[in-house]
């Protein structure tokens, strides 16, 4: 009898919800514009609590999805806008060059507040590789190079003695990121070209770390990951931002130090920062 009674109550609730199209908790008069109206002066709405890694691992998030990111800065509500996860901090910026960029490095939990703001450093990618887990600064390592466009695992691939010191060796390796294959940027964004990075650099008031930080992009000194040892170093003193451009066996990068900023070569096995630009 109790089971029948509970089932009847549940059916009545479902029917009433379907008829009136709205529900109220803590109120008998839910706002007609709301499908769910919560009223209380002593409690709150508790969202799913995820780390930034867990949030970014959600498969095919729908626009409007909301979670609480516990390690985004000091913690923030994140919502998916259909292209990228957004939060209380700005997620895009438009520079004086007219280009629109993501306001933080890939994997960073916040916009940089200084050149040495560790929470803004983000991940370190090997050139042409997707977000398979290798980019996390503390990821495991191995020394066997891949033989296709994807590594098939999330380890950082050390490139000691590897052919052209790349994490992978296959015929189409030069087209990675250039063709969009493996591009780690969210939908609507991509890894910038060498020209796009250099155009930003030339717009700074100072051609060094101070100029990078004072620019709308607020580029921090996120360090690098060594191709041979897999060690992360130079955090707070230098940074390289990958471009999608190649030059022989090298990837082109924007290298920034306390005294200079230049477009240089780097072997593709290094782990460097990525800042995404909006597609045209």
Compact overview of the structure:
By secondary structure, the protein is of the alpha+beta class.
What labels describe this entry?
280 residues, alpha+beta, four-stranded mixed beta sheet, three-stranded antiparallel beta sheet, 4 helices, 19 strands, 14% helix, globular
Structural commentary:
With 280 residues, this protein is an alpha+beta fold. The protein has four helices and 19 strands. It has a four-stranded mixed beta sheet with strand order 3-4-5-6. A three-stranded antiparallel beta sheet has the order 15-16-17, with helices on one face. Strand 13 and strand 14 form a beta hairpin. The protein is globular, with a radius of gyration of 23 Å. It starts with a helix and ends with a strand. The model is unreliable at 4-20 (pLDDT under 50).
In terms of topology, how is this protein built?
Elements: H1 2-20, E1 23-25, E2 36-38, E3 49-50, H2 52-56, E4 66-69, E5 76-80, E6 85-86, E7 92-94, E8 100-102, E9 125-126, E10 141-142, E11 156-157, E12 189-190, H3 194-202, H4 209-214, E13 224-225, E14 232-233, E15 238-247, E16 250-257, E17 261-267, E18 271-272, E19 277-278
Parallel strand pairs: 1-2, 3-4, 10-11
Antiparallel strand pairs: 4-5, 5-6, 7-8, 9-18, 12-19, 13-14, 15-16, 16-17
Oligomer: single chain
Silhouette: globular
Mean pLDDT: 87
Largest sheet: 4 strands, mixed
Spatial separation of the terminal alpha carbons: 64 Å
Poorly predicted regions are 4-20
Q: What Rg do the Cα atoms give?
A: 23 Å
User: Roughly how much helix do the residues carry, as a percent range?
Assistant: 10-25%
For the biggest β-sheet, the strand order reads 3-4-5-6
- Spell out the helices and strands N to C: HEEEHEEEEEEEEEHHEEEEEEE
Structural class: alpha+beta
Count of alpha/pi helices: 4
Proportion of strand residues: 15-25%
- How many beta strands in the DSSP annotation? 19
């Amino acid at each position: 009898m109790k089971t029948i009674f509970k089932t009847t109550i549940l059916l009545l609730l479902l029917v009433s919800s379907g008829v009136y199209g709205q529900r109220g908790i803590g109120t008998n008069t839910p706002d007609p514009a709301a499908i769910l109206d919560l009223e209380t002066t002593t409690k709150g709405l508790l969202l799913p609590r995820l780390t930034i890694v867990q949030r970014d691992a959600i498969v095919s998030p729908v626009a409007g999805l909301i979670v609480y990111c516990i390690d985004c800065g000091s913690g923030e509500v994140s919502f998916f806008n259909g292209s990228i996860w957004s939060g209380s901090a700005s997620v895009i910026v438009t520079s004086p060059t007219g280009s629109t960029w993501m306001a933080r490095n890939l994997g960073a939990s916040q916009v940089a507040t200084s050149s040495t703001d560790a929470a803004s450093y983000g991940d370190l990618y090997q050139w042409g590789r997707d977000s398979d887990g290798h980019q996390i600064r503390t990821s495991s390592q191995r020394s066997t190079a891949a033989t296709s466009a994807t590594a098939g695992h999330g380890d950082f691939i050390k490139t000691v003695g590897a052919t052209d010191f790349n994490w992978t060796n296959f015929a189409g390796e030069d087209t990675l990121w250039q063709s969009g294959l493996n591009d780690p940027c969210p939908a609507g964004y991509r890894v910038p070209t060498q020209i796009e990075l250099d155009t930003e650099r030339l717009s700074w008031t100072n051609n060094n770390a101070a100029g990078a930080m004072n620019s709308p992009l607020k580029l921090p000194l996120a360090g690098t990951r060594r191709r041979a040892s897999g060690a992360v170093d130079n955090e707070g003193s230098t940074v390289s931002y990958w471009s999608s451009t190649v030059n022989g066996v090298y990837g082109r990068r924007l290298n920034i130090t306390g005294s200079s900023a230049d477009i240089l070569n780097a072997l593709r096995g290094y782990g460097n920062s990525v800042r995404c630009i909006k597609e045209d």
